[in-house]
Amino acid sequence: MDQQALVSLTLIILTFALYIGISVYHRAKVTSDFYVASRGVPAFWNGMAIGGDWMSAASFIGMAGTVMLMGYDGLAYIMGWTGGYLLLTFLLAPQLRKFGRFTVPEFIGDRFDSNVARLIAAIATIIISFTYLIGQLAGSGVVIGRLLSIPSWIGVLIGVFIIAIYATLGGMKGVTWTQVAQYLILITAYVIPIVFMSLQITGNPLPWLTYGSVVDNLGAIDRELGLSEYFAPFDEGSRAQFLALLFTLMVGTAALPHVIVRFYTVSTMKAARWSGAWALLFIGILYLSAPVYAAFSRFVIMNDVVGQPLDDLPAWTEAWVNTGLLEITASGEQGELMWEDLIIDADIVVMATPEIANLGTFVIGMIAAGAMAAALSTAGGLLITVSSSFAHDIYYRLVNPKATDARRLKAGRIAIFVATIVAGILALDPPGVITQIVAWAFALAGGTFFPVLFLGVWWSRINSKGAVAGMLGGLFTTLIYIFLAMNGFILFGIEDTGAGVFGVTVNFILVFVVSLLTEDPPQHLKDEAINLRYPEQMTYEEGEVWMDDSSGK
Length: 553
Hints:
InterPro entries: Na/Glc_symporter_sf, Na/solute_symporter, Na/solute_symporter_VC_2705, Sodium:Solute_Symporter. Belongs to the sodium:solute symporter (SSF) (TC 2.A.21) family. This is Cation acetate symporter. It holds the Pfam family SSF. Keywords: Membrane, Transmembrane, Transmembrane helix, Transport. It is a single chain. The chain is an all-alpha fold. The chain has a single domain (3-429), classed as Sodium/glucose cotransporter (Up-down Bundle). 73% of the residues lie in helices and 3% in strands. It has 20 helices and four strands. Strand 3 (537-541) and strand 4 (544-547) form a beta hairpin. Helix 8 crosses helix 9 (207-225). The protein starts with a helix and ends in a 6-residue tail after the last strand.
């Protein structure tokens, strides 16, 4: 094993030990610990944990590469994922916290007083979380595969083993504090390389202020090589696809069960709002840095790699070719490598950047540790969501309401273990790149849940039949369009990653039509919905006032 691999492996092992240690120290002892960390997480730390939960392998590994390869069109990912948090923070998170349940399926089941709606929501949550989880485990395979120069599928199995240990032990309580540590590690690892690259390229240590000039230079290089300009809009896809993807990621963000449940871990509605505000700050640091990565990496490749003799390429190219994520064709003009001869997988850009810029062994190791932190932090949250959907919403609420606390904890831990193994098997041969797989999860979340959650809070006329019809219609519409688009059937230029626009539309229509054509919901359910919108007190009829202590009870 060379020095680089040894340093990287050492840093990853140390961080693994830290995560497992935190999980053991904060081990869940009761079900409230396991599902919502006993609602005792301060807003600041919960915001940081949300950032760790949110900074998935797609954000850390895939997003910068997507922007580098797609240019302007890749910005839909950054804008959609960030904008969705505004929807969640202002329209849903405080209200869902006030209702005081453990999970999204439990909110839906109790809000509409329907076990059918609860079951459908639980199954949909498991489908969405599995889809997202496959992307995270595939990301861990990319990191470990490159680090140890082994096939990615072996890296996936190693990631599965680590995640299964700490998520099973700690539950939401352990995962929360693990995600805080993972955020600190991943954001440090993400920012340091672009600071060094900024110093190398521009002499300024503030990359967010300097990369604009680099983008201008990229435009000049593209024109010289006869390529489409890096910042030309809608060159890699249609305007309709850009807007559909932007919309899909926004509504998907606002409806992701594993993100929403993080707002259940605080004590009040006010704390839920502040959690969202802190999360936006912590998330913004990475999302403002992704375009910098994209510009700097493309600039270095264009200047230092493109145009080089094919038999004298940098050593890092051979290492990544061995992983199967980089291909170099032999058709270079006069034996020189051309941009068109590089087939770059979007998932390697961040991982390869320290090597591309020759930033040194320690920085390469930091990136590897940060990438694993990103994959594991989101995977932990997803596994808790799968576990709670099965053990709490299906087993406890529908199958065995008399189950003891110990039996419910056991069921939750078994669900995590099984889910990890199944998702790991599926991640051995992922059906797409990481950002694509994650976009499917967002499309499914938005198409299934966003209209029902939004209208469940803001429209008291919605009833259980409308909610069930909307969730089923949205889920199947999204799944069917993803499948059709993957096989060449494209409507209005919208690809599989923008499928959420169709699912959400069908969902809204079905909710409205079915709710209006069937009976009114009971008055107490209408009153509960109206009460959700007010933080302290509300008047729903003249002379009648409901009080709420924001305790979530």
